[in-house]
Amino acid sequence: MTVSNASPAAPDRAPVLQARGLRRVFRVPRTADRPSGELVAVDDVSFTLPCGGSLAIVGESGSGKTTVARMLVGLDTPTAGDILIDGEPAGPRARSRTQRRIRARKIQMVFQDPYGSLDRRQTVASCLDEILRVHFDLSAEQRVARVAELADLVGLDERMVRGRPTALSGGQRQRVAIARALAAEPDVVILDEAVAALDVSIQAQVLNLLADIRDRTSISYLLISHDLAVVRQLCEEAIVMHCGSVVECGPTDRILDDPQHPYTQRLRASVPGPGWVPGAAPQPSETRAGEPT
Amino acid sequence: MTELLTVEDLRVALPVQGQMRTVIHQASFAIGPGEALGLIGESGSGKSMTARAVGRLLPAGAQVSGQIMFDGEPVLELAGAALRRYRTTDVAMIFQDPRAHINPVRTIGDFLTEGLRSTLGMRRRDADRKAVSLLAEVGVEDGERRLRQYPHQLSGGLLQRVMIASALVANPRLLLADEPTTALDVTTQSEVMGILDRLRRDHGVAMLFITHDLELATAVCDRISVLYAGTVVESQDAESLHAAPRHPYTAALLASRPSLTVRARRLPVIGGRPLAAFEAPEGCAFTERCRWASPVCEEGRPAPETHDHGQVNCHRTTELGILGSEAVVTEPVIAEPDKSSVQSRGQQP
Residue A145 is inside which H or E element, if any? Predict the structure, then answer.
């Protein structure tokens, strides 16, 4: 399945990121309950992220959405299938330092937990400076200026930049994580549940920030999320994953307003809202692969 | 109506690095028999500590003042056998993360029947039978097998059902549910909330439901109290709170959550960050983030004003009345786009 290119951005450019028939199989050791076997975590997942576009991968725990993200950034190797970056095959896994750096300039990732993804002993300035030193040949003054620019972009003030993450709140930390991802000037940022751990009032600030950054740059987002309201707010296109497979794909508005697949319908009906009755959503007909029963 | 639980002017301070730090300034609410009250707040607002105070589960060294009455008994003065009875048969608590609150090296059966056997003096076989029937009530089939399993062999949703079953073991009259579905998937949340809601109605159990999700609380609770920086700022019937908020914080919370049905061009934003109770200033704690703030707001904490559907603690509520989504300012979070684009490739070597 392929998501159509509905983005207004540069139609002449090749899609910035493309996945074709991605598959990942894990070997599962024997336990007291079941013999050893294979767990298909991701099965035949394909999508296209146009330049400047935004695509959401929606799914619940165990659906394989994070495994897809790990394969895209090169933290994991697909069992089968291709990843194309700017139309060129990304190779199975970035092994050498040069390869890893090339991939890092293309794709960056923002993780869910801003308390676990930043080094607590490193100041925000040195955290951003480190990325600039690795990727660019800039003088010390140029780097200082660029750090200030990045901090400005995500709304961190000078005092916060000089301090360590321990002095920052969750929302501020997540801004640091976003600034760090942007420091490498990537084409794609993968947001792995990047606003899920934030308080409602802070979540709104970060969502607006992400929308602003996309308005002002040609960056593309791949959002991994279970939160349908966040997906609607940030992404034009979405794919819905269940048990490792894509069950539905298309424009976000169409998927949320008129879900076709029974699983998408159940997901949509499970979100509390006006007139919602708990437990009224249709019961699941299958359990996910590998779930302890 | 005689209330089952009344909390009046609850104030809690905890020792942090040798200093007493206030975590709840002023919390007052009441729950009738069989009623569900939602307690809404962001992190640091003191919602979990309120539940712990009600369950007499605060950490050692906590200073508590105010009054908590359960069925006419002063909870804060209970001791010895009376306190044990209160904790076993009057109230039960469900925690957010079942994996952290169920002993990983004991079986589900041990966990469920411990209370039945030790406190109620039931025999093993009877306790097992009771546990199996409770598991069936929360939608867990083949309970016999489940009793012999260990927590790591169960999924999160299943384990949370076990926790709910354990809370119902002694037929409590009040359930303290602290974010019981936050760690669960949304479809599992719907199932677990459905079970909790049905059991509550079948058994006539009252519930204090703690969550950050206003939509969820509106769906399952009769009344809702909103906490900000350790203070209950507004209490109303769930439906009317959702439709006609009176406190600026409630209105802002409702507006800033992205909607499932429409994409906002920009989300309305509450500037700044949520304050923890100990950082709250002398006046209304919400003052610095409130678009309606005026000098009067800094003059002492607002007293509760009663209206038809509930209470609100706001100095300006008589002027403001019911607030719509205009209670929040849509302001740019970041500076004007004057700097060079992030995508600029000019700096490459």
Answer: helix A140-153
Show residues of chain A in contact with B187, CB under 8 Å. Answer: 60, 266-267, 270, 281, 284
**What is the domain extent for residue A124?**
17-269
Is residue A224's pLDDT more than 50?
Answer: yes
- Strand, coil or helix: what is B9? strand
The 10s digit of each residue's pLDDT in A17-51 is 999 999 999 988 887 667 888 889 999 999 999 99
With respect to residue A12, please indicate whether it lies within any of the assigned structural domains: no
pLDDT digits (tens, 9 = 90+) for A138-156: 999 999 999 999 998 888 8
The DSSP call for residue B278 is G
Helix pair angle (A140-153, A170-183), 10° resolution: 130
Is the pLDDT assigned to residue B339 strictly greater than 60?
Answer: no
pLDDT band at B347 (very low <50, low <70, confident <90, very high): very low
Position B206 scores a pLDDT of 95
Cβ of residue A226 closer than 8 Å to a chain B Cβ = yes
Given a contact cutoff of 8 angstroms between Cβ atoms, the answer to whether A84 and A15 are in contact is yes
- Residue A257, token pair as written in the block: 């307003």
In the predicted model, what is the mean pLDDT of residues A4-21?
69
A145-159, A248-262, A279-293: range with highest mean pLDDT: A248-262
- Listing DSSP states for A57-112 in one string gives EE--TTSSHHHHHHHHHTSS--SEEEEEETTEE--S---SHHHHHHHHHHEEEE-S
Let me know: does B212 contact B41? Beta carbons within 8 Å: yes
Indicate whether A6 belongs to any domain.
no
- Interface confidence, given as ipTM, is 0.81
User: Does residue A291 form part of some domain?
Assistant: no
Distance from C-alpha of A29 to C-alpha of B100, rounded to nearest angstrom: 25
Question: Does position B56 have pLDDT exceeding 80, yes or no?
Answer: yes
Helix or strand run (H / E) with residue B198 = helix B186-203
CB atoms within 10 A of CB A145: 13
Q: Would A292 be classed as within a structural domain? A: no
Angle separating helix axes A200-216 and A170-183, nearest 10 degrees? 20
Q: What per-residue confidence (pLDDT) applies to A4?
A: 45
Sign of CA dihedral B138, B139, B142, B145: negative
Q: CATH number of the domain at A196, please.
A: 3.40.50.300
Total domains in chain A come to: 1
* Optimal mutation site among A144, A172, A199, interface B, most CBs of chain B within 10 A: A199
The residue among B105, B12, B101, B9 whose CA lies nearest residue B61 is: B12
Rounded to whole angstroms, the Cα distance separating A72 from B278 reads 44
Partner B contacted by A219 (CB < 8 A): yes
CA distance A244 to chain B (A): 16
